[in-house]
Amino acid sequence: MINLELPRKLRASANQAHQVASQIFRPISRKYDLGEHEYPVELDTMAAMVDGLSDSGTQKISGASGGRSDDADPGTTPDIVANANGGNMSALLNALETSWGDVGLMLSIPYQGLGNAAIAAVATDDQLERFGKVWASMAITEPSFGSDSAAVTTTAVLDGDEWVLNGEKIFVTAGQRSTHIVVWASVDRSLGRAAIKSFVVPRDAPGLSVARLEHKLGIKASDTAVLLLQDCRIPKDNILGSPEVNVEKGFAGVMQTFDNTRPMVAAMAIGVTRAALEELRAILTDAGIEISYDTPANNQHAAAAEFLRMEADYESAYLLALRAAWMADNKKPNSLEASMSKAKAGRTGTDVTLKSVELAGAVGYSQRLLLEKWGRDSKILDIFEGTQQIQQLIVARRVLGKTSAQLK
Q1: pLDDT digits (tens, 9 = 90+) for 231-245
Q2: Can you tell me the distance from the alpha carbon of 169 to that of 157, in angstroms, rounded to the nearest whole number?
Q3: Global model pTM greater than 0.85
Q4: How far apart are CA 133 and CA 54, in angstroms?
Q5: Comparing C-alpha atoms, which of 224, 187, 182 is closest to residue 203?
Q6: Which residues of 55-80 are buried (b: 16+ CB within 10 A; e: fewer)?
């Protein structure tokens, strides 16, 4: 029997995140959309609150340690481990609720970067102790490629007790503000994708610099940077996971990162989607258009029928994301489900927000409401962490049992 209700402890956490979104994010959303690259100082207070909750044990959401789940509750034996809703589910729900407020601000929350999920996915216990509470960005994309993560050209060469990194990374979310950056680089380009590893690079590492900040369509509250690594030196043990190159395993280790981050991005899209649906419902209600769940959609106003269609897509995206996060918490392989949730939520987000702008008429296109902003913000959620097309390709490979070489 499947119970789709959230447990009480997660509901409490999600409610707190919703209050932050409602009381802090929404009131300043337009301000930081117009003031691109301006640092949201209001988030410093929130960061202190999140860190305090994490230290007290009230919530397990601060830094990379929030993405790790314990094998069992205290008192259980290894062979009697209950199904768990842990760090991944909690992080997903918090991302959903805060993105309902403003996804750009959500991506700007200190110590909650996408790189933190990468650290949680592949770091050793010792590394998690060192990097569990840093603010980590993720640096994968380069000028020569986008979604083809195997095409990494940034190199990492071991020199004594240090790795020396060289390369250029683009579209790094929170690339200027974060304290650390998780960088994908190859330790031996002749071995192909198997030699791609992830490295934790401190902000003050010699040879690391910010070349520029990008001007963007949406999520303008979040800084998106171009980073240069020029003979950048980091300690030898800053390579995440094992430094060994296994050509048979490929780069499954670093790709495991996406199994954690893709449901998170799906949650962001779901939060923006819900915000748009709630705004649209209010607009339609004020216009005298009734949305009925008892009358067939084809017997209702066209706008009401569209609303019902979009709400159904929202619900399916939400459930897919919950499933992917639950599987991660219970240490079940979730690569297929992570890509399914990301593909569905990303596509639904752009569809719902833009259709809401259309159905709202002139007010939807104006800056009187946040609908047009959500339409702009939603597009990146269908692109980063793997585009819509890449997600569908991954799903097809998993369903058909094909390798990346067999199905391109």
Answers
A1: 999 999 999 987 877
A2: 17
A3: yes
A4: 10
A5: 182
A6: eeeebbbbbbbbbbbeeeeeeeeeee
Of the listed ranges 13-17, 154-158, 308-312, the least confidently predicted one is 13-17
Distance CA 305, CA 293 (A): 10
Please say whether the beta carbons of 68 and 87 come within 8 A: yes
Mean of pLDDT over the chain: 89
6 DSSP 8-state letter: P
- Residue located via tokens 């959309």: 33
Of 13-17, 208-212, 280-284, the poorest mean pLDDT is in: 13-17
Instruction: Count other C-beta atoms under 10 Å from residue 124's C-beta.
Output: 12
Beta bridge partners of 167: 229
Tokens of 217: 């369509």
Q: Give Cβ neighbours of residue 406 (< 8 Å, ≥ 6 apart).
A: 397
b/e map 347-366, b = 16+ CB within 10 Å: bbbbbbbbbbbebbeeebee
Q: Which residue has the tokens 């979040």?
A: 222
Contact 208, 232 (CB under 8 A): yes
Structure tokens given for 234: 């980091």
DSSP bridge pairs for 210 = 227
Q: Which of 142, 279, 372, 385 is catalytic?
A: 385
**CB of 48 closer than 8 Å to CB of 115:** no
pLDDT one-digit tens code per residue, 10-21: 999 899 999 999
Tokens for 223?
A: 């800084």
Q: Catalytic: 385? A: yes
